[in-house]
Design goal:
Elements: H1 2-6, H2 15-29, H3 32-45, H4 55-77, E1 83-85, H5 89-99, H6 106-125, H7 128-134, H8 138-160, E2 163-165, E3 177-178, E4 181-182, E5 189-191, H9 197-214, H10 220-234, H11 273-297, H12 311-327, E6 332-334, H13 338-343, H14 349-362, H15 366-372, H16 376-390, H17 402-417, H18 421-438, H19 447-461
Antiparallel strand pairs: 1-6, 2-5, 3-4
Length: 466
């Protein structure tokens, strides 16, 4: 039955591999259950007054969005790609929009998310998003995989404390503090405290997972996470949960406080156009970069570097975005952490369905999941491993042609050093047509490449990077 539904054998996989891949992906991205509500609530708390968005309902909304997106991706698009509220976009929606034009209500922010998702959906139906996706040069597609891989590696390093900010731990009397303002340090990041047992466990987890993958052990990433998490509990480096079970209809988690509260009418005015354009472009670029990176990681791209039948995951992305706004959370889309499951061999939608079912189960184990999120030393190494493996796309870069190499490298480094995927993608896409036109090689340009380049140039001209 599963083979008929998902074509498992045809894609060279098995039931066990697909389920294992889905579980691994969930383990690598379950942090969003706690991270997304925390960011949205923190922004409200810093606008003045009490928090307008309660964390309990936000947690339920995050889980429901991930469940909906993963199940739809698996059953409709048949891809091993998980979906959840985006990191990065949630901060943009929470912080940047809150300060836009004197302040935007959280109901209007949800309305903006819904309209951006609706725009994605309409553009996908008329195949414009597909046309734009096919217009991205092959060299840039590979650079997206490399950049996102290095970005994941850096996130893993930072989350585990292997590296940390130069300002971390500085006293109030630090020379970096001038007139109660932190000045720019000479070095932005430095080595973390490698005498910290949690950092040591993270390093051990990275080496252990690398060895398990080298020995081709099935479930290597998940085994690495479980082993290091267990060691952390044994050594007393993590507190066990005080509760394990909680029902989602508990008063602390009631969704009706934020669901169906989106204000679409309040967004339909001229002053909101910059917001819609920015959110559309950020999400569009993140989705494209993620899909191509995951396609590259799983050898799912064709000879031209395109992802076959890309319309289906794009439709899932747009519908998930609208669903997220309806239940009361931020922009949703394909998750790069899906690469952990893909690296375990997942190739069909059954992996995404498995991830979605685990998110659904998490509705009843929110206290347990909240405890797990403190174990960054356990799941952080898996992000580093996936980033390491995605770096293999570098072999496909055309390095002898500077009009190809320059935008590719710029895209990679800006993704990593601005800590934002969209910034790097926009820079590479804007620079590519400019270099081709300046070198009198305009015949190599696809019309969609020029259009994307112009949009991405506007992204920088109007100061939209974040």
């Amino acid at each position: 039955m599963f083979d008929r539904l998902f074509g498992i054998r045809a894609r060279g996989s098995s039931l066990r591999i697909e389920i294992l891949g889905g579980v691994t992906t969930f383990a690598a991205m379950a942090y969003i259950i706690v991270a997304n509500p925390a960011i949205l609530q923190f922004a409200e708390r810093n606008e003045g007054g009490g928090p307008a968005l309660p964390v309990g309902p936000l947690t339920v909304a995050t889980i429901l969005t991930a469940t909906f997106g993963c199940l739809l991706m698996g059953l409709y698009a048949n891809r091993p790609i998980a979906v959840a509220p985006y990191m990065g976009e949630n901060a943009f929606i929470a912080f940047t929009l809150a300060a836009f034009g004197g302040g935007v209500t959280w109901q209007q922010r949800l309305g903006t998310v819904f309209l951006a998702g609706l725009l994605f959906f309409l553009l996908t139906l008329v195949r414009l998003r597909t046309w734009l996706a096919s217009a991205i040069p092959k060299n840039l597609k590979h650079s997206f995989a490399i950049g996102i891989g290095l970005f994941l590696f850096f996130i893993g390093l930072y989350e585990t404390g292997i590296v940390t900010s130069e300002t971390a731990g500085q006293p109030a009397t630090s020379p970096l503090v001038v007139n109660e303002t932190i000045t720019k340090p000479a070095v932005p990041v430095r080595m973390g405290d490698w005498t910290d047992p949690k950092v040591q466990l993270a390093l051990a987890g990275f080496v252990l997972t690398a060895l398990l993958m080298h020995w081709r052990v099935r479930g290597a990433i998940l085994l690495g996470i479980a082993t290091i998490a267990g060691a952390g509990f044994v050594l007393g480096l993590a507190e066990p949960p005080t509760r394990v079970f909680a029902v989602p209809w508990d008063p602390a988690y009631r969704l009706d406080e934020i669901a169906l509260q989106l204000d679409i009418a309040g967004v339909l005015r001229l002053s909101f156009l910059p917001i819609l354009f920015t959110l559309f472009l950020i999400s569009f670029l993140d989705t494209l970069g993620t899909l191509f990176a995951l396609g590259s990681a799983g050898n799912m791209l064709d000879d031209k570097g395109n992802l076959p039948d890309i319309e289906k995951p794009m439709i899932v992305d747009s519908l998930s975005c609208m669903f997220a706004a309806v239940v009361g959370t931020s922009t949703s889309g394909a998750y790069i952490e899906s690469a952990t499951g893909i690296r375990e061999g997942a190739r069909t939608g059954l992996a995404a369905v498995s991830t979605g079912l685990l998110f659904a189960a998490a509705l009843f184990f929110i206290p347990l999941v909240e405890s797990f999120q403190k174990l960054s030393f356990a799941y952080g190494p898996s992000l580093m491993i996936v980033g390491l493996l995605m770096f293999g796309a570098v072999r496909h870069l055309e390095i002898d042609d500077l009009t190809e190499l320059t935008p590719a490298v710029v895209s990679i480094v800006l993704m990593v050093f601005t800590y934002n995927i969209a910034n790097g993608l926009a820079a590479g896409l804007a620079l590519y047509p400019l270099l081709k036109l300046a070198s009198m090689r305009d015949r190599e340009l696809h019309p969609g490449t020029i259009l994307l380049g112009a949009l991405c140039l506007l992204y920088y001209v109007f100061g939209l990077p974040h």
